[in-house]
């Protein structure tokens, strides 16, 4: 009886489900509309096609930020276009007065010639002296430069940047001679109205950008980037150490110079200005401390006091410093290659660090020249370098075991001379090597062809030295 009841109920439910499934879509939507109390003329939301979901909140934020950035870029482009128009003296965009005309410096200008002197300098730049390039027109040339600046400052442009840009356009357009660019660089740092105008700028970095953008092409033309950078670094006096280094790197990047290819003279020129900039914090600058060495020591250090402590206070002058840092590195590499004893490592301002016996053991084991330990390189040693030292019994035993291991593994110890190049019999059967390799001598005594019985042949060019009959 129970089974019959369950069967009837199940059959009824299946029939109802099939009936509902067979009901047309429109009829079912109409029934839902009645339930939702939707008037016949109104739009039925249930009958609308499925709409894709809108962007997420994060996507909407990104879209808003992208629109904001696009708008800022558009505004920046408009400002740059306006600035470019302001640099066009012929367009006279801002209704500025024309530049002053000086008689006697140039011939009568034509319609397109302009009003600027164009003659070449008579002699070269004399270093620290004011670069007077025109012996007969010194006063006129100075007056013309001053009047140009006063003309640019007298015009009511948008800001001082535009005024200086106008002046820069005049100088750049009318003075292509090297000496005049040099004169402008010098006049910026002399007691002239130019210096006063530069000092009135709100931000020192504007001076950098202005000088670099306007004068850098001329500096690159006559190959004296170091003088331009050196004079620009004068404005960094009194600033934090990190900001000075950042500005030097910024100027180097904008000028298109490769820091890895800078000459020692270029770095030393910057160092002279950094010496003045850091005088209050450091007291004095070591005579052999280069900018590259200083930057290497402070790289990644954010705290200014730590920069001074790590970059300067722990600085140890290089004994017998000669040449640039690159030259020193090349010398050290060559020293390791030829296994020549480096006696300079024993000395620290004339103080002997190790006895002859300890020194020979340290050299042969390849240990640190400063502390005598073999788990780090000499330049990474953190221990002080002053005073005479003696190896402990533990260190001596460890170094001797290290030497024995190196000899056993066939490594040539430091200071060991190269052996004569070996010439083996071409008959592999007569070879005394029992390592699966045989060798045969070629026509050249410096080339030995090694044949591996298990793989392809290998040709080694150079002098092959055997240590303890092992390869």
From TrEMBL:
Residues 59-86 form a coiled coil. Residues 368-383 form the CCHC-type domain. InterPro entries: Znf_CCHC. Residues 1-17 form the signal peptide. Residues 91-132, 318-349, 407-426 are annotated as: Disordered. One of its GO terms (molecular function) is nucleic acid binding. This is CCHC-type domain-containing protein. Keywords: Coiled coil, Metal-binding, Signal, Zinc, Zinc-finger.
